[in-house]
Request: fold
Amino acid sequence: MTTLRLEHVSRWYQNVVAVNDVTMTIGPGVTGLLGPNGAGKSTLIAMMSGFLAPSAGSVTLDDERLWRNEKIYRRIGIVPEREALFDYLTGRQFVVANAELHGLADPGAATQRALALVEMTDAQDRVISTYSKGMRQRVKMASALVHDPEVLLLDEPFNGMDPRQRMHLMELLHRRGGEGRTVLFSSHILEEVEQVARQIEVVVAGRHAASGDFGAIRRLMTDRPNRYVLRTSADRRLASALVADPSVRAVSLRPEGGLEVSAGDFGRFSAVLPQMASREGVRLLEVTPTDESLESVFSYLVAT
Amino acid sequence: MSSPSDSRPSGVIHDIGYRPYSGPRLGEGQIAWSLFLTGLRNCYGLGRSGRSKVLPMILLGLTLLPALIVVGVAVQLGLPELPIAYSGYPLTTNLLISVFVASQAPTMFSRDLRFRTITLYLARPLRRSTYVLVRYASLSAAAFALIWAPQLLLYVGAVLGDLPVGRETEDFAVATAGSLVLALVLAGLTALVSAVTTRRGLAVAASIVVLLVSYTVVTTVQGVATETGHDTVAEAAGLFAPYSLVNGLQVYYLGAPEGSPAPPGSAGMGALFVLAALLAVVLPVLGLLLRYRRAAVV
Amino acid sequence: MNRTIVRLGLRSVFGRRRGILLFVLPVVLIGLGLLVRLLAGATGDNAETVLDELGLTIVVPLVALIATTGLLAPEIDDGSISYLLAKPVSRHTIVLSKLVVAVGCVLVFAALPMLVTGLLIAPDEPRLALGYAIGTLAGGTAYAALFALLSVLTKHAVVVGLIYLLVWETLVGSLLDGVRWFSIARWSSVVVEEVTSVDVAQGLGPAYAVSALAVVILGATYLTGRRLRSFNLTGED
Reply:
């Protein structure tokens, strides 16, 4: 088991608290660390990479401390956010150097494997200073994968990638997660997180706001009514019937047609809606939940 | 289903009371002047963070301190003249002056190129050449202030201490002219080094190498050459360091008391010194202009 | 000592513009030696002026400063040192490997040129040249260790190093004699004395000088390694 455990971790810089009493467990699979800018994501990843000591609490990988512990880097691969690399080396030389520093038995072969994984085999003999932003990201990934680590930490990995590279990286992360490795990446772009990670940890203003599957998180937010958009054959008739039901909090008619319904009791509403529709003789053409997305979950969390 | 007439996109700009400025605008001259003043202040850390004030202010204090002591001692003992000549003072404090110019030149030239804030400056009605020349002027003015302030202090002390005003004023004027040329040369050299290297640490180190090594080499050669009778060589060596170059000019043309070991002794050598000084001012400025012309703005 | 880091270090010193500056200093030194030889003949009178004032006081520390800060400061500044730190390699090994490159630079760009210059100026006294070369190596290594420590302590390592050299060792050192107890340049000149049996009244015994150098070299290296172990690197600049 490769589990990262953060127990009551806090980090402050004099008067500024960057991370505030965060407890989380990152297990095998792909986990997304989500939060607005300045929420403390980079600080958390720095602490999990052993580059920052928590002011309070402990950060451990399988009960082994991460701070001031060089041996643990055999098991961790880190893809930092900063762009700076050893510009005067070629891509291949850079990854080979990383492989050698890890003490691998055959650095050359490991390098070729890693470069093939990130699709950088063609450009490997060009100097890094000539690389585009996306190519730099991929070389960074190759350097983090070359020693086949059990844990992979990525800080804003999709920055600067074009759609094709992004898809490729997502697929790569997905595969590694599927192999039972622990992958953690941070992002403030919801679509990316939504597509790759079902398990998310949300950090807002240094506090741990939510964790788990985002659909499950949504369902826990019972104080917020679920919103649906209905397209029907007879909007007003259905609307007036819906308002009468106690599970419905609000109904509004959209100018372009259709109804927006705010349902307080999601369970009752889903049972009541088809009965009501058939009783009124209204045909339901489309029923779409509008806030099951990560975006709305996120905006609810951030807004509090 | 949306109706076909809704498919054409339309837009409207709302009037929220925004009015463009159509009044008089200050010209490039004003911009240049305010940039000059800002640059000069920045060289002494004014207008920047507290930590950047430390080094320039300490250096300023250290250059003024010996002058203060000299004046105090001279007045107390009633000496007929100051123990150290105005024009010779920069030679004594050359280390402090070199450190100042070497450490402040990168704030004028390396920072904007490295972090590409130069695009912000050039997005104004300010020509590239104006920007470069104004920055150079700021650095020269800052260096001049450091070199001249102790000399001013010596002069004021001398006058207040009842030394002959006419003689002191003449010497002081000579020294002022020399300090001006010295400031221009030092600023030019360090500015060029900073603009070419762009990394602050490296620029400081390279500037120090240029200024310090040149002066040490020159004084060593002058020492050896005068001892072994190679006077022309000794004089010619003075061309290669700013301090000895300027001092030589002052001694030969303006009658200042001797400071460096081998000032020019003949008209030919004197002319060579003038030429070297001109080149030492003009060439770095041209180099700077060329460097900034190549600086990509996008 | 890690060969990869040494290789990377060599590449970073010579692959960047800093390398040019490292060549300038020995060229100037040797050039001056040639000039003095042409002017004064092979009398060796001026050996001390050249080798001490230009060499030990200026060229040696500047070579050490440029080489050492060039190996550490840029990587710390832009964060690429994280690639060296995120490896199961002891921090002390990292520091030692970088210092090996720095001392190598001191050897090639300072000690050997000092030897050559000494032989140019005073060919009849090879012991003098050798003494200066050894003193250079000892002092240069101490400077390298000190500047390495400065590089991991502050972002302004070059400026602080220059202030130490120019203000403390040179300026204050020429005014106050007591500085010699705390000046690497002074200690290395004592080493020179020992080898050349030339007596320059310093008042510092060789035992003190050698142990002071050793303390600085070992202490600074160890402290640099310790500081690297607790090195903070966050994602943001």
